[in-house]
Each structure stands twice: as C-alpha cells, then as structure tokens.
TrEMBL record:
Domain writeup: The DHHC domain is required for palmitoyltransferase activity.
Organism: Aedes albopictus
Biased composition (Basic and acidic residues): 356-365
Annotated keywords: Acyltransferase, Membrane, Transferase, Transmembrane, Transmembrane helix
Membrane-protein topology: Multi-pass membrane protein
Transmembrane segments: 12-33, 53-73, 135-163, 183-209
Subcellular location: Membrane
Palmitoyltransferase DHHC domain span: 90-224
Family: Belongs to the DHHC palmitoyltransferase family.
Enzyme class: transferase
Domain of life: Eukaryota
Entries under PROSITE patterns matching the protein: DHHC (PS50216)
Protein name listed in UniProt: Palmitoyltransferase
EC code(s) of this entry: 2.3.1.225
Amino acid sequence: MTSGFSAIFWRFFHWGPLTAISIIKSITFMTLYMNAMWWPPNRTFGGFLNQTVFLMLSASTGFNFVMASLTGPKFLPLQWRPKNPEDEQFLQYCATCEGFKAPRSHHCRKCDRCVIKMDHHCPWINHCVGWGNHAYFTCFLAFAVVGCLHATVILCGSLYAGLHRDWYVYYGQYSKATVYLSLWSLVLGVFNVGLAIGVVIAVGMLLFFQVRAIVNNRTGIEDWILEKARHLREGTEDNFQYPYDLGKWKNIRQVASWTCAPIGNGVEWAVAEGCDQFTLTREQLLQKSAKRARTRTYTILKPVSGSWVPLWSQGCRVCLSPPLTDEARIKLDVGDTVRVTRWRKHWLFGEKIFDEPEEPRNGTKKDKKRKQQSEPLPEAHKPPRIRGWFPRQCAVELVEDEDEAEQQQHFNEKKKHK
C-alpha cells in the first residue's frame, strides 16, 4: 500500500500535473468568486443553473484529468512474444524490454516501456496517451475547453459590471451594481481571463488533433508512419493501405464507450478488408531497412556539452535553430563515433557507437562457451543506448565501404518494387 501511494505521489509531483491542477483550480475559484457577485446562485433559478453547470464542467475536467494520469496507458508485458513463433519475423524487437513489439505498440523512452497504441507522451498528465486512457484524456480536453469558455464569459461579464459599477450607481441601476472590484480582484480577474483564453486556444488545438485521431483511428505515430510510407512509394504504382481505418463510426466505437474502458486486448485489432494483423508492422520493418540504408557515420571533432542552449560553445546560429522536439541532447567527446539518422541545418540526430570490449586471452570456460555458441552478452555488460541531438559543426562524416554497399543494396531492392 505504501508503494502504491508513493507511485501516485510521484505521478503528480511533476511540473506538468502541478501546473495543470494549479490552472484548473485558479480559474475555478476566481470564477466562483466573481460569479457570486455578478449572478448569485441563491437569487434566481438562472443563476443557480449557471453555477451548477460550471461546477459540473470543472468537476468533470478534474476527474478525467486524474483518471487519465492514474489509469495511464497499458504497457506491453516485458519479454512479450507472439503466440505463433513464425509471426516474429513480422515484428520489431525492443532491446530495452527484451521482447517483440506487438502491432500498434511503440517504446516510450520516458516511460521506458513499450506502450500499447501509443499516441504521445503528455507532460501535463506525466504519462503516455494510449490504449487505456485515450478516452479519459479526450474527455479531459473536451471538458477543459467548454469549462474555460464558460469561465471566460462569467469573468468578462463580472469584470465589465465591476468596471462600470459607478455608472450603474449614478443612473440608479442598483440591481446591476453588485460587483465590487478591489485591486487584487481586478488583477486576478484579468489574469484568469488570460489563463482561460490560453487554455481554450492551446487545449482546443490539442482536442482537434485527438478527435481527428479517433475519427481516423490513427495515432500521431501512425500518422508519421503513413506519411513515410507514401514518401517511400513516390513515383511508383504501389499504394500502401492503412489497415485500421474501418470507417468513421466504426473508428469512433473503437475508443468511445460509456465506461471509457479500452476495447479489445491491445494485441489483436480489427483491420480493413485486404489487410492482416501485420500489414503495418511489415511496413515498419521496410521503413527501418530504408533508415539503415541512409544512416551515416560521423566522428566528433569538437567536444559536445549536451546542453539545450550551447551558446558559449557553439554560437548563436546553433541556438537560434534548434530541432523542434523534446528529444534528448547528448554529450560527446572528441573521437566518439555516432550513427546519424536525421539531419537539420545546424543539428544532427544519432546514436553513439561504443567500442566492443576486448575479451581477455585467458577467459573462463563460460566465456569461451558463450563465444562459441554466439550468445549475446548479459544485460549487465551491455553498454547503454545513447541517442539524441548534437550540433552539426562538431562532427564530420566518415565514408565507409560497408555503408555504400548496404545503401546500394537498398536502392536495388527499391527498383525491383517499381
């Protein structure tokens, strides 16, 4: 029980949930305070209904936010393998989880687990959005947008009445001169109007993308896979069919339910006609092969600090054009080797290559047996994977014959499909 409470505590003890909860409570309390003067709920039925609706929206926003964070997505079991061993050839392998990735599962480097139907890692709930909390997260966004719109109307109306209070008194309209603004209530009222409008704009855009993902039955990661599939087939007659688009209403029923519980088992999915369970995973393997073909090896000529804003070491041009992603920046030393897979004007993304340790001449019988059977090293002896962005001007490309041969083989295979 203690460990469960500790997990819940650390789930919310993060800048994202703390900021989101603070914004929700600030808007709620200030709106109730101003509404008590502007349209008191104890005087008219309209005032009672207005405040009741707002409280329901605020409570629903908080409830779905907490449930989206506590429920979280469902993780694929560690060392997961398909029931049929022959299906392993159609799946990607996750070295971190030491198992295969089920269809629609992706590894989250922040959760450090393979997440079922992962959409993205949301800092506001300090968790991934995926199969398990997708419905809660969408409801949270919807109630937040509607609730903040309601709060904006109440706050703007009460501020208008408070600023014109002297005018109402002068002309004898005492029934409208009910809002009294002190310095702090004026400042906090304007501040929370700004918060509410900001939430409507920012969360409204995110709600649009979430609703679009539900209607198309396609996560943000799958959008990217589909875009790469189309780019890979440019100039050919081959078209990739997305397997999980069942039609708008069937797509919505894959997520929407009265209980917000996930539908299915997270491994097997309903697919469109002409597709199977591994249509998307085969495409991922093809794209991974293309990625390996365009991989380049770089060596580091200048130390890389790993800073997000390396102003003193790299200059202004590098700092003013950072990659628009929350992926890590890595620290590198002179002489390190990196396999680069993504390029920007002033930045590169790649994985650091570790030199394999030389085995001692007088190794143990166990070491010699492992070498003869080609067994992998134990997990404790494997170097950690270090991937991230680093400044481009600190590295230079190495040309290797093996890379050229692999690239040529990939393009030869691509010509066969045309």
